[in-house]
Every structure is written in C-alpha cells, then in structure tokens.
Amino acid sequence: MKSIESIRLTSAQERGVALSAAGYNVGMLPADLVYIDLYTDSGTSAMSDRQWAAMMLGDESYAGSRSFYRFEAAVRDYYGYEHVIPAHQGRAAENMLSRCLIRPGHHVPGNMYFTTTRQHQELNGGIFHDIIIDEAHDPDADLPFKGNVDLAKLERLIGKVGAEQIPYVSLAATVNMAGGQPISMANLAEVRELTRRRGIPVMLDAARAVENAWFIKQREPGWNGRSVADILQAMCALTDGATMSAKKDSFANIGGWLAVRDPALAEQARNLVVVYEGLHTYGGMAGRDLEATAQGIEESVQEDSIRTRVQQVAYLAGRIAAAGVPIVRPVGGHAVFLNATAFLPGIPHEQFPAQTLTCALYLDAGIRSTERGAVSAGRDPVTGENRYPPLELVRLTIPRRTYTQSHMDVVAESIIRLYGQREKLRSGVAFAYEPETLRFFQSRFRPLSGEPLFG
C-alpha cells in the first residue's frame, strides 16, 4: 500500500443518533460516520499507482482530447465494440440507450431487473419483463449460472407481443439483484441465436462483465484454458452493444460508456451525449478520468487481480455461512448477499426486513450495506402498489483493492453477532418520506416499534 485513509469507529450512541437523523436510511449517513463502507463498489475502489500516474497525462482539451483516443482504443481492444461514446457513469449510458431505442408500449426482456436500468426503460415508456431462470429467485439454489436466460420465457414473450415490439434484450453479466450471478457463455450464445433469427438486438450491462468472464473460466467446461481477456471478448462478440459503469470493473472513481456496433445508433447516441453529457469526445468525463479508466480497463483483466477480488468476497461469505447465517448461494464476485427473509423471519415483507437489517448492521458496528428488496423494487407504475420480489436481500458490496482481511473479519463478526441476537428485532420500518423514483436512495423511515431499533 502506498497510501492509506483514516477511518473512525464511532460509539453506539453516536450511531444511534446518526441513524435517526438519517431517517433510518444508511444511504443518507455522512461517510465520516461509517466505519466500514460496503454500500457499493461503484467508484469506491482504490486506484493503482499506474492509474494515478495516468491521470497526470490527462488532456483536458474540449474537443478531440488525446485522452479520449486512448480511452476509445482500450474499450475497442478489450470489449471489441467499434463505436464508443463516453458518459459520466453507467446510468447516463442507460439513459442514452433507452432514449434511442425505446418507445411507449415497447417490451424489454432481461435477466432480472436492475434499479436504474429498469427506471430508464420505464421512463421512456417501456415495460420490463423478467426472463431469468426461475432458480435465480431462490437464494438457496446452488447453480453455477443463475444469471441464465430462460429461453422458453423469451420465446413466449416474442410470440405474445411480436419481435417488432422488443427494441432489445437487456442482459446483465453478472446479475446484481440475484446476488451477483453470472450468465454462461453457452446460454449467451443461445440467446444470440434466437434473437438473430427474430431481428432483435442484444445489449449487455458490462459493469461487472470481467467478473462474469472469471466465473465462466472457473465453472464452464471448455473455457478453463482461456484468458479472462479472451473470454470477455467472446462474451461481447455475442452482443450488439453495451452500457458500462467504469466505476466497477475498471477501478475508476467516475466514468462510463455506451458502445455499439451499429453506426446509425452510434450517431444517434452521440447527438444525445452532446445534449446531456458533453461533447462526444469527453461525455462528461475529465481527460484525467478518461486516462484512469483506460488504464483500469487494462488492469481489470489481469488474472491475479480478478482472482484476488473474487477470493476476498468468498472469504467473507465463508466465514458467515459457516456460522449458519443465511446467504445467497452461490457467492457472486462483487458482494455477499444476506437473505433478510430468513435472517429476520418474524418481520413481514411489508415492514421491509432488508431495510431493517441494514439499520441493525450499522447500529452494531458502523457497517454500511445496501437494501436490495422491496424498497429497491419500488412501486408498480400502473397500480401504485409496492413490488415484493422473491429476493429480500442485504448486499455487502466489497470495494476493489480497498479493505483488508481484518476488515472482513470485523464485518463477519458483526453479522454473526446480529444473527445470534435476531430475536430482538421483532418489528421493521415504514416509510416516513418516499420519493417518486429510485426511492431507496433518499427515502426516510421510522421504526414501527416507536422506539430505536435494538433499543
């Protein structure tokens, strides 16, 4: 380590006051009051010495920066797409793609939703359809590729609405909301063949595609002898384009891109990026961040790098699973997901057990995690009713190259301790304030007991 960052362990009293002031939403806490921050791995990873050095070479020219051309070459070399449009982060790329392709009444199938992806699809008039295999909704189903598409579901949807009403198939690799589950190369090829026959594009959420490539190398027959870089290229070759948050696999603190093969779609996206992000050669990113992302792309496919990353996640999962704590299996590459329904069986889904558990974890040890359940799922846009997905999870997202094994031990001990005291949590939380979109970020809650949680 060439640099360190100080963190402070707060007292239980401080955490209680802070959580109450934040409306029992850990996302509203000041970072200074968080001891170990597992809220997200997006933009929170530690950059390498070569990334910091690359930032010093950043060309901040408004148009045609040399940093853009290095960035563009890195995306082309490692992901294989010809046309590259930079954006300030992944959801900006999702916005451009949705505005370009989705019209009111369109149907967008995908291997489970992700919050921002579905939000952009719905805001542009699309209707999302979950076509992931049924086992992905079972936290205990221990299958190697729970991110796979159910081809029969996809074919039924095409038959029902018509291929012309499906602007693209939206594929995540890995599937965040299912617990970081990968899609297999064989399944991706089957999806590609079906959509090619029906004239439907396939668009990839590539934020953690390097992790997906690693799991293919480890779990899928015939790929063990191939490099992660080769597997990543093969995955992308089966798709027509991708959105990317460079804040994940590429170790960047900010940045992303939309990349496509169709030159007409690329030109449409460039026109949008000029309106919403910046010129098509910087797209809301500083030249120094374009340089850091380009370097991060090169480092992301290094075998030792991805192996270490996945093994750290597996270490935390192994410790808490050995104590009987219910988690999603198999363990993904970026996070450990606690099964909040099994962890807190006495709290009904309308009292948001996953949200409640994120609060309890912060109160116990100052650890910030993320709710991935009914709060994240939002409301049905037609009925206005809460969606209650089968998976009610708490995500412990591990930033890359940031925390040591000792930090993971602190997290494991807190979770094990909470699990042993779970009977103390008999009631959950209710909304005190609820925004219209992506409510999990800024909602505020109140304990239904009328007293502080674990009070």
UniProtKB/TrEMBL annotation:
Cofactors required: pyridoxal 5'-phosphate
GO biological process, one term: aromatic amino acid metabolic process
Record-stated family: Belongs to the beta-eliminating lyase family.
Pfam families assigned: Beta_elim_lyase
Aromatic amino acid beta-eliminating lyase/threonine aldolase domain span: 37-413
EC numbers on record: 4.1.99.2
Superkingdom, taxonomy of origin: Bacteria
Main EC class the enzyme belongs to: lyase
Keywords, alphabetical: Lyase, Pyridoxal phosphate
Species of provenance: Streptomonospora salina
Record's protein name: Tyrosine phenol-lyase
Annotated positions of the N6-(pyridoxal phosphate)lysine modification: K248
InterPro entries on file: ArAA_b-elim_lyase/Thr_aldolase (IPR001597), Beta-eliminating_lyase (IPR011166), PyrdxlP-dep_Trfase (IPR015424), PyrdxlP-dep_Trfase_major (IPR015421), PyrdxlP-dep_Trfase_small (IPR015422)
Lineage, broadest ranks: Bacteria, Bacillati, Actinomycetota, Actinomycetes, Streptosporangiales
NCBIfam families from the UniProt entry: PRK13238.1 (NF009709)
UniProt-recorded Gene Ontology molecular function terms: tyrosine phenol-lyase activity
Presence of the UniProt keyword Lyase in the record: yes
